[in-house]
């Protein structure tokens, strides 16, 4: 089985090349593998075992530490260069960093892959087996965290002086399994083994004083207001390797612990609970990514998590600033802080507090520096997803921050009244404080008011943000709003994930595309080249065969690599419309039941994604998909022609296997609801054709490649809004026979014969409660686009031609381009090359 991009040995690679490369990273003549090399040394001295008895996990750790040894001196030199040159630095604050596995990515970016491949071949080491021992880091959930990871890669590759800040969650969001079609959640203890990529820095711990303490009650974590306590934030650093290894930046993750000393007397007297309570409770603060926010306790934990991230990170970056700068007035000239969504919005009052209470600046200067240092990225148009925290929580846990927020708001509203006299409705919407029975702080408003730039993440998203979601604030501060369309790193998502296609592209246009993805534009003439079309088809078939083999090995599921791989992978949510896709498959299934002789190209529909544990309807959609899959598998009439596969535990590593193998990318959100999307870009870059709505960055992708090379369908965002007053989903049920038949199939319990009534809530959602996300309004259009798609797939040359044009047009969607725009337009940060 292939080991992806990591073991393709370049026959021209020599031992001299390897020695030269290791010397470049400060390792001198020490070999990487082989007798007495870095790998063997770690294997022996880290484990103190007979080499033959050391299991796979420890062998992976020895490998990873060997790679870390190679980069360590360069990592140190990067930090020393920043201290010496004192450039303006970027600090990227995010609650999520969905990194995936680090080992293969770091080897690729260090240019070590042919060297590692050759030495592994010599020692008969199965690198794929070795690398599979690494768990995906449980530091993120979906697009928000993966975007942050791509951005870190690009910042390092562009040699920008930058640092990421996040939380070191002991458990990821959860591990997903499917039982009887239902999602089940288990703890994701990804740190149960030592992580060879992290370096603890206890000497750089940050002490935080809070107006609350924490306790474990009935196994749940809760904050206790009015009882002051002190927390310690312990930093753990991970290397962020830029391509070529020229710059190695740092991702710093914070773990919480109690600062008070262990009470030996209590413990000795037998009062174990009291002696350990503070330590256990404080440690629970960073135990889990995204606690269940369906309860007040879960929301309270999230609130404190967000403050903990902000307070630790700002204390750390201020310490760095003061190390080389004596004048506080230079703060915004040396520090650019990017808030990735509203989660770190407490940075506004926290930075202002530092400047007022610790630097002792006057309000006007402190406020000016705060706004100039901070910038905010918005990632959602959904009002319910814009965070609002009870004012009472600030009052009881962070009273000084509340004082500051209320003063910011007083000045804001005074300014708004001067600008728009008599317009109290506008003033109400601008306010940071939402009035009501329980007053709340609007964190998005706070982030916008307290920063100098607010950006959306796709052209349509930024426009809707400015004209709809926060319209009044945009009219008050029009100069602060801008767009930065998202991007993804081509190093992980093409070079590493899809070596066969990467090799074909490099053979055609050279390898400069790896760091300048716009060069993929040079592929456009090759769409008319028969040899390159054949090379593309070969690469796609190789990826599909590898995925089929991987799936059989890991899960026992058998799929046909010659079928159309039709893929829909996203967080499960009504607006992302996995339900619409399931209705499409139900229609296709009904067609075959009614006409068994109907000619149909074999198709495999892949779904993957997690539903929030408290999101019952999303979990029911997963159940529907799995029941539909089981029904189709059990029907001899359609067996071999239609198949659904729900892939549990969707993660970066699974995506790296699946995306290169995909023929069709479903981007079918209700228009106006998806901020950008980044999976859409990864699929495009890997030669999958998109069937999608005019939403998020898919609009810009279709503009880049030409809509004739996409399968677009459905209502536009304007049409969705304008139809709210009159849309009647029942009309589609009564007037569209295939829609009615598909719904009847589901609601008749045909898919749930042993569980009658299971899918009744879907009937309520689609027919009784108005089908808010317009599934039935778009189903017929979706089916029309699907027909065009299948007709094209039957013409392999024409399909390959459009796929190549998609790849050639994907250059704009590199995270390098996005980060370069941030650096110029928002951060005013320049590269700081490391000698």
UniProtKB/TrEMBL annotation:
E.C. no: 2.4.1.1
InterPro entries per UniProt: Glycg_phsphrylas, Glyco_trans_35, Pyridoxal_P_attach_site
Enzyme class: transferase
Record bears the keyword Chaperone: no
UniProt keyword terms in alphabetical order: Carbohydrate metabolism, Glycogen metabolism, Glycosyltransferase, Pyridoxal phosphate, Transferase
GO cellular component, one term: cytoplasm
Cofactor: pyridoxal 5'-phosphate
Listed GO MF terms: glycogen phosphorylase activity; pyridoxal phosphate binding
Record flagged with keyword Transferase: yes
Catalytic activity: [(1->4)-alpha-D-glucosyl](n) + phosphate = [(1->4)-alpha-D-glucosyl](n-1) + alpha-D-glucose 1-phosphate
Post-translational modification N6-(pyridoxal phosphate)lysine, affected residues: 682
GO BP terms: glycogen catabolic process
Family: Belongs to the glycogen phosphorylase family.
Role this protein plays: Allosteric enzyme that catalyzes the rate-limiting step in glycogen catabolism, the phosphorolytic cleavage of glycogen to produce glucose-1-phosphate, and plays a central role in maintaining cellular and organismal glucose homeostasis.
Name assigned to this protein: Alpha-1,4 glucan phosphorylase
Organism classification: Bacteria, Pseudomonadati, Acidobacteriota, Terriglobia, Terriglobales
């Amino acid at each position: 089985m292939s080991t992806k991009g990591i073991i393709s040995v370049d026959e021209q690679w020599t031992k001299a090349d390897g020695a030269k490369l290791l010397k470049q990273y400060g390792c001198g003549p020490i070999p990487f593998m082989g007798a007495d090399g870095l790998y063997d040394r770690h294997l022996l001295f880290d484990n103190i075992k007979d080499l033959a008895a050391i299991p796979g996990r420890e062998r992976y750790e020895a490998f990873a530490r060997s790679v870390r040894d190679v980069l360590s001196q360069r990592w140190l030199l990067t930090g020393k260069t920043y201290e010496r040159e004192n450039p303006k630095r970027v600090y990227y604050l995010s609650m999520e960093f969905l990194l995936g596995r680090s080992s293969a990515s770091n080897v690729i970016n260090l240019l070590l892959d042919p060297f590692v491949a050759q030495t592994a071949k010599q020692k008969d080491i199965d690198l794929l087996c070795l690398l599979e021992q690494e768990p995906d880091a449980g530091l993120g959930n979906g697009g928000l965290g993966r975007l942050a990871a791509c951005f870190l890669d690009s910042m390092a590759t562009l040699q920008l002086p930058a640092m990421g800040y996040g939380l070191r969650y002991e458990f990821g969001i959860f591990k997903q399994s499917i039982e009887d079609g239902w999602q089940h959640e288990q703890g994701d203890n990804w740190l149960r083994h030592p992580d060879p990529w992290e370096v603890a820095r206890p000497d750089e711990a940050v002490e935080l004083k809070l107006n609350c303490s924490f306790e474990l009650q009935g196994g749940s974590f809760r904050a206790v207001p009015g009882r002051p306590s002190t927390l310690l934030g312990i930093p753990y650093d991970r290397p962020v390797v830029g391509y070529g290894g020229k710059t190695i930046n740092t991702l710093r993750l914070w773990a919480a612990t109690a600062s008070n000393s262990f009470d030996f007397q209590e413990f000795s007297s037998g009062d174990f609970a009291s002696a350990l309570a503070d330590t256990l409770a404080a440690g629970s603060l960073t135990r889990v990514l995204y606690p269940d926010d369906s309860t007040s306790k879960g929301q309270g934990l999230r609130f404190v998590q967000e403050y903990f991230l902000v307070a630790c990170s700002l204390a750390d970056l201020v310490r760095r600033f003061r190390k080389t700068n004596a004048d506080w007035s230079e703060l915004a000239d040396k520090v650019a802080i990017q808030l990735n969504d509203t989660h770190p919005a407490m940075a506004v009052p926290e930075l202002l507090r530092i400047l007022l209470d610790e630097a002792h600046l006057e309000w006007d200067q402190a406020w000016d520096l705060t706004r100039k240092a901070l910038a905010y990225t918005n990632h959602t148009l959904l009002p319910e997803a814009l965070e609002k925290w009870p004012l009472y929580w600030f009052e009881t846990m962070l009273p000084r921050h509340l004082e500051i927020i209320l003063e910011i708001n007083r000045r804001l509203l005074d300014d708004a009244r001067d600008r728009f006299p008599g317009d109290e409705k506008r003033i109400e919407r601008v306010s940071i404080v939402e009035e009501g029975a329980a007053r709340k702080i609007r964190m998005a408003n706070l982030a916008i008011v307290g920063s100098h730039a607010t950006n959306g993440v796709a052209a349509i998203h930024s426009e809707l943000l400015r004209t709809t979601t926060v319209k009044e604030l945009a009219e008050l501060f029009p100069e602060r709003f801008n767009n930065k369309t998202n991007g993804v790193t081509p190093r992980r998502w093409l070079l590493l994930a899809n070596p066969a296609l990467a090799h074909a592209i490099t053979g055609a246009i050279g390898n400069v595309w790896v760091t300048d993805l716009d060069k993929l534009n040079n592929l456009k003439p090759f769409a008319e080249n028969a040899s390159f079309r054949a090379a593309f088809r070969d690469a796609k078939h190789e990826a599909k065969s590898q995925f089929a083999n991987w799936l059989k090995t890991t899960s026992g599921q058998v799929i046909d690599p010659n079928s159309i791989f039709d893929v829909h992978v996203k967080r499960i949510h009504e607006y992302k419309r996995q339900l619409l896709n399931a209705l499409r498959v139900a229609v296709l299934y009904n067609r075959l039941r009614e006409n068994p002789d109907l000619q149909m190209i074999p198709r495999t529909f892949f779904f993957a994604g997690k539903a929030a544990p408290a999101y019952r309807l999303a979990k029911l959609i997963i159940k529907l998909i799995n029941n539909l899959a089981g029904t189709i598998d059990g029907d001899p009439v359609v067996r071999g022609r239609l198949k659904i596969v729900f892939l549990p535990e969707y993660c970066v590593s699974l995506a790296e296997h699946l995306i290169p193998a995909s023929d069709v990318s479903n981007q079918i959100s209700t228009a106006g609801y998806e901020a950008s999307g980044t999976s859409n870009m990864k699929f495009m870059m890997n030669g999958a054709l998109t069937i999608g709505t005019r939403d998020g960055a898919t609009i810009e992708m279709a503009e880049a490649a030409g809509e004739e090379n996409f399968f677009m369908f459905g209502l536009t965002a304007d049409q969705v809004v304008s139809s709210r007053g009159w849309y009647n989903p029942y009309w589609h049920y009564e007037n569209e026979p295939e829609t009615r038949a598909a719904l009847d199939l589901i609601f008749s319990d045909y898919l749930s014969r042993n569980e009658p009534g299971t899918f009744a809530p879907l009937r309520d959602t689609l027919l009784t409660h108005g089908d808010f996300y317009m599934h039935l309004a778009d189903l017929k259009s979706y089916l029309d686009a699907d027909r065009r798609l299948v007709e094209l797939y039957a013409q392999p040359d024409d399909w390959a031609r459009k796929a190549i044009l998609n790849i050639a047009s994907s250059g704009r969607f590199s995270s390098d381009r996005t980060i370069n725009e941030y650096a110029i337009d928002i951060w005013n940060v320049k590269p700081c090359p490391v000698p």
